[in-house]
Design a protein that fits this description.
- With about 60 residues, the protein is mainly α.
- It has two helices and no strands.
- The N and C termini lie close together (about 10 Å).
- About 5% of the residues are buried.
């Protein structure tokens, strides 16, 4: 679960970067999907850290 959490965290960070670029290009569909991905993957990462700790216990 530890490596999966790191990967999902990186996806959330890249989704935020993509959202910023989408705002610069004024692409509405890209903004919606990037925000959705950032919320889902970021929320999963934060919830995993909050309930299992970092590094997660066995």
């Amino acid at each position: 679960m530890n490596l999966l959490m790191v990967i999902f965290g990186l996806i959330a960070i890249l989704a935020v970067v993509g959202t910023v670029q989408a705002f610069k290009e004024r692409n509405l569909l890209s903004i919606v999907f990037n925000l959705g991905a950032a919320v889902v993957f970021g929320g999963f990462t934060i919830a995993t850290i909050a309930f299992q700790g970092y590094p997660p216990g066995l």
